[in-house]
Amino acid sequence: MTAPRTPKIPYGGDYNPEQWPEPVWDDDHRLFTQAGIDTFTVGVFSWSLTQPAPDTYDFTVLDRVLDRAATENRRICLATGTAALPPWLAKRHPEVNRTDFEGRRHRYGQRHNFCPSSPAYRDHATAMAARLAERYADHPALLAWHINNEYGGACYCDLCAEAFREWLQRRYGTLDALNDAWWSTFWSHRFTDFAEIEPPSALTEHWRGPDHTAFQGITLDYFRFTTDALLGCFLAEKEVIRAHDQDTPVTTNFMGMFRPLDYHRWAPHLDFASWDSYPPLDAPPTWPALAHDLMRGLKDGAPFWLMEQTPSTTACRDVNPLRRPGELRLATLQAVAHGADAALYFQMRASRGACEKYHGAVIGHAGRDDTRVFREVAELGRELEALGDATLGARTPARTALLFDWDSWWALEISDGPSRLVRYQEVVHAYYRAAREAGADVDVVPVTADLTAYDVLLAPVLHMVKGDLAERLEAVAARGGTVLTTFLSGRVDEHDRAFPTDVPGPLAPLMGVRVDEWDSRARDFVQPVRLGELTCEARLLFEIVLPRGAEPVGTYGTDFYAGTPAVTRNRFGGSGGEGWYVATALDQPGVDWIVRRILTRHDLLGPYADHPALETATRVAPDGTRLHFLLNHAPEPAHLTAHTTATDLLTGKRIEEGEPLTLDPLGTVILRGQ
């Protein structure tokens, strides 16, 4: 099953009419019509309203919300409301409340406050989902099911401890296998009974916080267990929904590059991916772009839904900058360029109370239609209406892929060495940014993905190498492709045990190098690296490389290893393939130099690679039509020369190849090829 079929990009967002008296609903729908809003997400936090007592269900308000939506010809993404407990459930079953990392059982409050291993939670959550599905499966407004909301958090209670032991028994089978995987002879940790195993927390293996553990193996497995425990909650609700509704697509909203949960383990169980985009507003545009491409990669390139974004400002940070005029339109069309088939907001009308009352909304507390934000939302609604179905179902024809691996992320950042200053996201983003700013379309894929479609494979900080990955990377190079990896790659196996061989472990034959030592330094230490005519800066970690077939491309400039390779290239196979190894954390100009050289070899530089503020993306519609997105992230106009003859879908203007093409500040064109 795939995403819902719609005649245009669904436009709207989270709507909580239960927070307002019904006369306000009339104003809401008048304004929604004015803004081109056609889709709502409702019921996300309605559990205490729809089930006010253990044996009492009341769908009166929800009935009116859905019926009114149907009357207004709008569609509903209906949430199960199970992301936050009702107070009576926490009072009646205290074990549904989470126990935190320090071992404290929480009392009722906040949200994401449930223990995923609690039978009481599972029973009540699935009962609610079943009743909703039974009642609304055939409702004319229903478009999709939205289970829970932004799953996250961990619990360390006795129920989770027992569930963890059962999970370990299924994973390892025997204690001998577990002890070997965790290298438990270290510090007298050899277990003789599964009952002896405790969740890794501040009371057991962690002494300086969640990322400082005495045993990486057990902590890594608890991350995996938590992913599976929360996934189990999702699957339980999906199962009861399917008992009443076989046809309506089911999703839950992810959070992009969210470290606590391995979304690749969830992806097969969603009918379509969706996510909530709240990047720091001072982040480069490639940061949300990376998250968009990661979400698209979850379902093998299928379009995703932008389930939430703010129309103006957030309310969850110490400082919450406002989106400037034009930034909302640009961010929305960027999502569409990267594969979004829906554009939804949080929130439709601002809440009057609690912690999100100052969060951005399409409609403010006064209910006005003459605010700048409302006008921008309405204008964008008109553009999406005119765009129609032109982009729906379109896919990205990328020949460059970037590997994104939660296991490597976790293992790298819980490791006591070589450096705690290396951050997985930052390194991955640097290489993604280099490829995107050079004009390459990029698929962000798991390490299990089929790699046969790609000419260039970027695998920065591939700390953990599992299964046959090394052989599949070699196959890319053997047929003439290029594979790049970096420092701290090829270090550990799936259990976070160091390979009993030279670094970079299984990647060494492809890379043609041996790493003998590594020098970890503070952030303020800079090592110059020479790359051709460019001298760039390197920081944090400096691996000392001995070529074993590879040729030096860049060299260190100081210390006893001055003149030794910092970047190497290895010819691999008989078809001209290459393995590139970057032994240090280069600055962005250094990463750009390397990635552009690789892309040029494969004729993958974009036509506007010399315009750093111009983002390009390509999608191919189901009928084969190529759509070229050009997005100007600069506050000044972008003066270009059209690289193809096309029609701009947003204006209807025909553009001839070779003629001048100017994009307004923060402007976008969508070119449909002839």
TrEMBL record:
Domain Beta-galactosidase trimerisation per the UniProt entry, residue ranges: 398-604
Molecular function as annotated in GO: beta-galactosidase activity; metal ion binding
GO CC terms, sorted: beta-galactosidase complex
EC numbers for this chain: 3.2.1.23
CDD domains with a match to the protein in the record: A4_beta-galactosidase_middle_domain
EC main group: hydrolase
Keyword Hydrolase in annotation: yes
Identification of the protein by name: Beta-galactosidase
Source organism per UniProt: Streptomyces caeruleatus
Regions that span the bilayer: none
Record: residues binding substrate: 111, 149
Keywords, in A-Z order: Glycosidase, Hydrolase, Metal-binding, Zinc
GO term, biological process aspect, one: galactose metabolic process
Limits of the Glycoside hydrolase family 42 N-terminal domain: 14-386
